[in-house]
UniProtKB/TrEMBL annotation:
Pfam families: rve. One of its GO terms (biological process) is DNA integration. Gene3D superfamilies: Ribonuclease H-like superfamily/Ribonuclease H. Residues 218-391 form the Integrase catalytic domain. This is DDE-type integrase/transposase/recombinase. GO terms for molecular function: nucleic acid binding. It comes from Phaeocystidibacter marisrubri. InterPro entries: Integrase_cat-core, RNaseH-like_sf, RNaseH_sf, Transposase_IS3/IS150/IS904.
Length: 425
């Protein structure tokens, strides 16, 4: 039972690890053990302390083994109940992914819960039951330990030096607030104007973290073969959409787009659907862009199958081949339908036109904006730039690499004093 200066008996460690030191050890013994030592013992797992001691070697060991047996029964019941609860939660939420999302959103609470309950089960077993990898848990733990209110992520800049700086966070907020279109366009414009130099995925991440957009439910989209051009004017799409002006009258917008650049090549606003109008818009696109060996994709509407249209296409057959979606090709005309959805969803001026004449005027401005704003298909570049072959004026990869270097240097020399970090690195 006696101990030297360098070692305490396992009985003492076990008593503290079991949380039963007051019951198992005399007060005189407890007073001889430094607080830091006893506190460390409380974090230990009793099963990891046991050696080959004879449980009947002395009264204290007998009592300890009795307590340990009770503890193991309680721990086994706790583990069984926890596994059942996790299975129930996963089933109720519709799968493991939804459960993992909840854990991630509440990661600091998860870390605290694991440390509160690791006396019943080892930390390794707890995170295994939760379905969290050791690397992920260690990352969550680091975030909890180095919490800092002066960081966009509430993480110490020195310990998590790859996070964006406060200045970059302000630039993200400004970009989202000032740009009237979607989040992707906000990112591209900020990068183009050198207000920011982060990747698109990082921008989206911080838009969510900073609470600048509503979270969207992830939907699994069915895989579809894409009908994509490999160069300019290889594929054109044409279609018509209807818009009702404030005077209650209907107008029809005729549009032709280029598949590769996504640019709107030709358009017209008419009061009716007529084959001559579709032909007029097509002739204008051909006259302006001089296509060669192009595919002209439309739906099977009568305006696309008129005698005049057929005669014109026969005359231009060396330059244009007419294809009916879902008849001549196994693809829909969805690309141009997406353009209509964008115009109607993001350019609300289209629904503010008082009448047909005002719609004609407004549409010119809308199409100019559409062609000259960054498109998700082209990163930071616009459909007009791709159409003109001017889509390589920025080395985005090099720009982002330089930005990472500056960000690391800024964060690693952070003089923050609000967090618990004592690092001098």
């Amino acid at each position: 039972m006696a101990h030297g200066n360098s070692r305490y008996p396992n009985e003492y460690k076990l008593a503290y690890a079991l949380g039963a030191e007051k019951e198992l050890l005399e007060e005189d013994i407890r007073k001889t053990i430094p607080y830091s030592t006893s506190n460390r013992w409380r974090q230990l797992n009793p099963l990891e302390i046991l050696g080959h001691e004879d449980p009947k070697s002395n009264a204290l060991m007998q009592h300890i083994y009795s307590k340990l047996d009770e503890r193991m029964q309680i721990d086994a019941a706790f583990e069984k109940a926890l596994r059942s609860f996790v299975d129930l939660m996963q089933e109720a939420l519709g799968g493991d992914n939804a459960f993992q999302d909840i854990l991630k959103d509440n990661r600091e609470s998860v870390v605290g819960w694991v440390f509160q309950n690791h006396e019943h089960i080892t930390k390794k077993s707890l995170i295994e039951i939760l379905g969290v990898s050791a690397a992920t848990f260690n990352y969550w733990q680091a975030i909890s330990l180095y919490h800092c209110d002066s960081s966009p992520l509430n993480q110490c800049a020195k310990q998590s030096s790859q996070q964006i700086t406060l200045a970059e966070a302000r630039s993200i907020k400004r970009a989202v607030k000032e740009v009237k279109w979607n989040i992707g366009a906000s990112w591209a414009i900020a990068v183009r104007e050198k207000q920011l130099a982060i990747s698109k995925s990082t921008f989206y991440k911080y838009v969510h973290v900073l609470g600048l957009s509503e979270p969207k439910r992830k939907r699994r989209k069915p895989k579809k073969s894409k009908f994509r051009a490999k160069k300019l004017h290889q594929i054109w799409h044409a279609d018509i959409t209807q818009v009702k002006t404030l005077d209650g009258c209907k107008s029809y917008i005729y549009v032709i787009i280029d598949n590769y650049s996504r640019a709107i090549l030709s358009y017209a606003v008419k009061r009716k659907i007529k084959a001559e109008y579709s032909l007029e818009v097509l002739k204008n696109a051909v006259r302006t862009h001089s296509p060669a060996n192009s595919k002209y994709v439309t739906d099977g509407g009568p305006e696309n199958r008129s005698i005049e249209m057929k005669e014109y296409l026969a005359k231009e057959e060396k330059h244009i081949k007419h294809l009916i979606a879902m008849k001549d090709i196994h693809h829909t005309n969805s690309m141009i339908e997406r353009v209509f959805k964008t115009i109607k969803g993001e350019f609300d001026k289209i629904f503010q036109a008082e009448n047909h004449e005002e719609l004609e005027h407004v549409l010119g401005s809308i199409i100019n904006d559409y062609n000259n704003r960054p498109h998700s298909e082209h990163g930071i570049y616009t459909p007009a730039e791709v159409l003109q072959g001017n889509n390589n004026w920025m080395d985005l990869k090099e720009t982002l690499a330089e930005s990472i270097k500056k960000r690391l240097a800024t964060n690693q020399t952070c003089s923050c004093t609000k967090c618990e970090c004592k690092s001098e690195d």
